[in-house]
């Protein structure tokens, strides 16, 4: 018989496609499904919430434009426009339940039209606002952890996942311990699993590194968890070898 896709002859008497074309089509279908789900997620994230029934009374909020002011840049004064990033109220309340709580109630931020962000630089803040508007921003290995922390604080889960995926793709022998500690601190399971896997696979070399010794001093609880995972893996490997030997 001939494959309907590649027209190559194959052994089965049933009409259809050969094994290679069938597997390729299945992979393509799965990839398209993932892309569709991703686009649905983006649309859901970018959808704006309906406006409040009673519009805010302050002039700054009524205009819809607010300023997010970075306090992390020590050189910037409280009135410096260079350390402030503008954003529309509708975008902030739609993307973050924390901003929504601030701005839908008579809190200081709602009255003044200024939201003070104490723990993010202006660069990180601009990247944060970019993502709130477009569901995309440029990441690097310095900005991704800071942006993830900001996303976690303001409960922008879509952005937190975005940053975590990037950080997971960058886990290596040099930063595995630091990534493991960071993931623990910020409940980043994907990053935690990736860094933990790399650590236990290279335990002999990583445990002589300076950052590992510092971790022993600073947080022995995490070291215990590392060894539990390492010993569990060793036991599984031994069990597998034993089973293969009996066969």
Write the layout of secondary structure elements.
Blueprint: H1 19-46, H2 59-62, E1 65-70, E2 84-88, H3 89-95, H4 97-103, H5 108-112, E3 114-117, H6 122-134, H7 143-153, H8 157-169, H9 176-185, H10 189-201, H11 203-206, H12 210-218, H13 220-246
Parallel strand pairs: 1-3
Antiparallel strand pairs: 1-2
Helix pairs in contact: 3-4, 6-7, 7-8, 8-10, 9-10, 10-13, 12-13
InterPro entries: BTB/POZ_dom, SKP1/BTB/POZ_sf
Domain BTB: 72-141
Pathway: Protein modification; protein ubiquitination
What does this structure look like?
With 247 residues, the protein is mainly alpha-helical. The chain folds into three domains: 1-47; 59-169, Potassium Channel Kv1.1, Chain A (2-Layer Sandwich), CATH 3.30.710; 171-247, Alpha Horseshoe (Serine Threonine Protein Phosphatase 5, Tetratricopeptide repeat), CATH 1.25.40.420. Helix content is 61%, strand content 6%. It has 13 helices and three strands, in the order H-H-E-E-H-H-H-E-H-H-H-H-H-H-H-H. The chain has helices spanning 19-46, 59-62, 89-95, 97-103, 108-112, 122-134, 143-153, 157-169, 176-185, 189-201, 203-206, 210-218, 220-246, and strands spanning 65-70, 84-88, 114-117. The protein has a three-stranded mixed beta sheet. Helix 9 (176-185) runs antiparallel to helix 10 (189-201) and helix 10 crosses helix 13. The relative contact order is 0.06.
